[in-house]
Amino acid sequence: MRLIRYIHPGTRSLAPAYGLSGRSPWTGLENEIDQLFESALSGFVAGPSRTQFPVDLYEDKDNTYVRAELPGVNRDDVGVEMVEGYLTITAARKQKDGDNEESVSFSRSVSIPDEIQSDKVAAAYQDGVLTVTLPKREEAKPKKVSIEVK
Amino acid sequence: MSLFNSLIPTLGRQAVKSEDGSSEGIGPSVKPVYDIKEAKEAFGLTVYLPGVAKDGVEITAENDQLRIVGRQAWKQPEGWTALYRESPSVPFELVLDHDNAIQPEKIHAELVDGVLRLSLPKAEAIKPRKIAIA
User: Fold this and answer.
1) For B78-119, what is each residue's pLDDT tens digit?
2) What single DSSP character describes residue A22?
3) Looking at the predicted structure, is the pLDDT value of residue A35 above 80?
4) For A50, which of B31, B33, B49 is closest by C-beta distance?
5) A54 pLDDT exceeds 60?
6) Residue A81 and residue A121: Cα distance in Å, rounded?
7) What's the pLDDT at A67?
8) Where are the domains of chain A?
């Protein structure tokens, strides 16, 4: 006696017909894979993380710039602090919804690679983007030294 | 590549979606953060579009769809080197199906500090109605 039922080779396939429901046996797996990818790719969408705002770091010859996307915050509620090589940006967004007022606060620290003049840091807020300009120290700026060839 | 798409269903579907013209013309885009609240007379839509100025916003309502495109006004100045980036450099695009539940001609929109607020008045057909018994 056989333990395994004989299946005619013609009807054997990777995706056997599961009754009349027409449901592929891979449906569950497909959903699993979809979810995996969605959760893995969600970092690329500007969406889900609402308490951590995106930050860009730029530099040119004289300054280092930090651009933080903070839409809808009040200028008075934005705080910029420079402590031991870290720039900390704090902000709060207040939303009025009828009688309720909800407030969301954000905070983020960014490591600044170059030595900067902490006392000359400037910040500007436009269209929901905060731009912090951090002037580099003289010794951190690239220097041109011309050497005379004898 | 087609084998790869067939192995990972999500990738295959995204490719199909971009072909049917939903994001025609603007190329790659990201979906902005948004929320919708419902009030008695209207839906309130809030879309966060950091870095987008007034003239960079495009709102179109057609074919049961509300489409919002926001283009960032800021361009990286010459001489600036990006050391680290998190923000998207592609425009924002949000497409919502409204299924004629709103009155497109009465949409009111305002943009303040990168936050776009839209008021979408409900269509008469979906408003609750009291029926008096004669």
Assistant:
1) 888 888 888 888 899 999 988 888 888 889 999 998 899 999
2) -
3) no
4) B33
5) yes
6) 9
7) 92
8) 2-13+48-138
Cα first-last separation, chain A: 100
Chain A contact set for B51 (CB, 8 A): 69, 127-129
Ranking A30-34, A67-71, B120-124 by mean pLDDT, the lowest is A30-34
Torsion of CA B98, B100, B106, B112, to 10 degrees: 0
- Helix A27-41 / helix B9-19 crossing angle, nearest 10 deg: 70
DSSP conformation letters of B65-114: EEEEEEEE---PPTT-EEEE--S-SS-EEEEEE-TT-B-GGG-EEEEETT
Taking an 8 Å cut-off on Cβ atoms, the answer to whether B30 and A45 are in contact is: yes
Residue B4, classified by CB atoms within 10 Å of its CB into exposed (0-12), middle (13-18) or buried (19+), is exposed
Q: What is the reported pTM?
A: 0.66
Distance from CA of A59 to the nearest CA of B (A): 5
Select the residue of B10, B33, B51 nearest A38 (Cβ to Cβ): B10
Give residue B32's Cα distance to chain centre: 7
Is the complex ipTM higher than 0.90? Answer: no
Is the CB of A72 less than 8 angstroms away from the CB of B92? no
- Written as six digits, the tokens of B34 are 């948004």
All domains in chain B, ordered by first residue? 3-126 (2.60.40.790)
**Range A63-77 average pLDDT:** 89
Read off the pLDDT of residues B67-79 as tens digits, 9 standing for 90 and up.
999 998 888 888 8
Of 3.40.50.970, 2.60.40.790, 2.60.120.200, 3.10.20.740, the CATH number of A2-13+48-138 is 2.60.40.790
